Every structure is written in structure tokens, then in C-alpha cells.
């Protein structure tokens, strides 16, 4: 095994441990960590199997293996960006709804305070 393979494998294991630590501490949710774990596992597999990228490129009809790597990375990034956009849109809608509900509750509270300050007298 070459020095770069060993270094890549070591860095991949350190990165997986770091991702696990972030999940355990609650700083990273599992749904966001899955893409990092999958990419790291793929890099680890290709670190152990150096000719694997060439074989995969031939099977998929890609002329040069680095093109397959870059195409896969771009595809993964695009999927991740769409996912983040969906989550961001959902959170934006939730924040808007919560803000509206909070404004209504604040208005009701102030109305209650006004009524308690100036109680209406019964016409009895």
C-alpha cells in the first residue's frame, strides 16, 4: 500500500469519527450527516481498491476515471443543495407562521390587559 493510500484511509477514519462526534453532541443532525458518511465510505473503498475508479469508469462508459469522480461529486452536491433548499423553504414557512401566531397572541394579551385596566361596569 502506498503512502497516499494510508494517509487517505487515516484521514477518512478521522473524518468519520469527527462526524460521529458532531452527531453525538447534537451539532449535526443525522439526515445531514448521511451524505458526508457516504462520500467518506466511497473514498475509503477507492483508497483500498485503487483500480476501482478505472473499472467503474469503463463499466459506465466514461473515458477518463477522474471525469467520473467529478461528475459524481457534482451530482451529489446538486442533490444536497436541493435538499438544503427544501429544508430552508420549510423552515422559512414555519418561521412566518410562528411570527403571525405570536403577533396574534400579543394582540390578544394586550387586549386582555386593557380590559383588566378599565373593567366595564355592568348596567345593573
TrEMBL record:
Keyword terms: Coiled coil, Membrane, Transmembrane, Transmembrane helix
Superkingdom of origin: Bacteria
Span of the signal peptide: none
Coiled-coil spans in chain: 88-115
Residue ranges crossing the lipid bilayer per the database entry: 6-24, 31-49, 69-87
Pfam families: DUF2304 (PF10066)
Protein name (Swiss-Prot/TrEMBL): DUF2304 domain-containing protein
Organism of derivation: Pedobacter psychrotolerans
Organism ancestry: Bacteria, Pseudomonadati, Bacteroidota, Sphingobacteriia, Sphingobacteriales
Amino acid at each position: 500500500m502506498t503512502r497516499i493510500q494510508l494517509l487517505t484511509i487515516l484521514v477518512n477514519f478521522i473524518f468519520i469519527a469527527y462526524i460521529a462526534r458532531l452527531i453525538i453532541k447534537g451539532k449535526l443532525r443525522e439526515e445531514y450527516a448521511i451524505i458526508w458518511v457516504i462520500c467518506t465510505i466511497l473514498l475509503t473503498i477507492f483508497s483500498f481498491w485503487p483500480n476501482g475508479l478505472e473499472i467503474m469508469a469503463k463499466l459506465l462508459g466514461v473515458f477518463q476515471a477522474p471525469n467520473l469522480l467529478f461528475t459524481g461529486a457534482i451530482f451529489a452536491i446538486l442533490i444536497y443543495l436541493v435538499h438544503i433548499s427544501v429544508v430552508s423553504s420549510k423552515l422559512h414557512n414555519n418561521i412566518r407562521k410562528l411570527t403571525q401566531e405570536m403577533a396574534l397572541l400579543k394582540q390578544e394579551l394586550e387586549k386582555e390587559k386593557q380590559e383588566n385596566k378599565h373593567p366595564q361596569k355592568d348596567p345593573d
